[in-house]
Amino acid sequence: MNDTITIEIKEHIATLTIDRPKALNAINADVMQGLNDWFSEGYKSVDKLRGVIITGGGEKAFVAGADIKGFTNLTAESGSEVSRFGQETYFLIENFHVPVIAAVNGFALGGGCELAMACHIRVASMDAKFGLPEVSLGLIPGYGGTQRLPQLVGKAKAMELILTGQMISAEEAVKIGLINYAIDKDELISKCQSIFKKTRTKGPLAVSKAIEAINAYYDKSNDGFETEHSTFGLLLESDECKEGVSAFIEKRKAEF
Ligand code: CAA
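A: This is the predicted complex of the input protein with acetoacetyl-coenzyme A.
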């Protein structure tokens, strides 16, 4: 892992901090490569990983977008490749097998808002700001924003936010369904931990398959209902489900 991302592992939860506070944690090539490396391979070294938190270093920003200063020499071809690699990396996060929570501690703009949207759950501090301001740069969102924002908030609101490039408050982001919670900054990490406290008492295979089935709804090459019924059947044969069902019948706590 390169030095643009710090990783802390505590009680089987990994916290990844994007750590370029002087540039408001803007995502340059090293950050994107670091995320790609960790979500494809790096996580495998964590013993019994049960959740991931992604947050931003410093006081001001989660991530203020892709690093605009790296755009000056891009061509149509290399720019498209940067966008494709970003999309691929965010797919790894969206399809990760354990819950990933964005702890949004400030500006979440452009590629930063897109990163938060790729996470399974978003918890933000009251002072966080969200937006996809790419049109101000003569661009469009390139890390999945045109696709995930309408999924979360509907087409009308997504059109408005992307075409105007306007920023919205965390409170407004909760109202439109872009994020799950807006809370005091001091409580950001403890809120994520309290969500994990709930998910980690559940069957890990079931949690990972639920992520897969929900994502299947948005995958145009897939029939989500088919994914659901085949996964439901497979899980019924799993040791995990046998334990969960037995525990219910025997009136005891399941041990996964
Ligand atoms: N890329 C590179 N550097 C950035 C950056 C970004 N996205 N955002 C902030 N910075 C840098 C600033 O250049 C500045 O650096 P210097 O001190 O060296 O000048 C430093 O971070 C602090 O920023 P500001 O002085 O601008 O801080 P502010 O409080 O006045 O404003 C802000 C904060 C409103 C977030 C403002 O920095 C801003 O508008 N940033 C750009 C936001 C943006 O347009 N994001 C989208 C990027 S494009 C994208 O993400 C494409 C995609 O989908 C893949």
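The pocket of acetoacetyl-coenzyme A is lined by residues 23-24, 26, 64-69, 86, 107, 109-111, 114, 133-134, 137, 139, 141-143, 145 (CB under 6 Å). The chain is about 45% helix and 15% strand.
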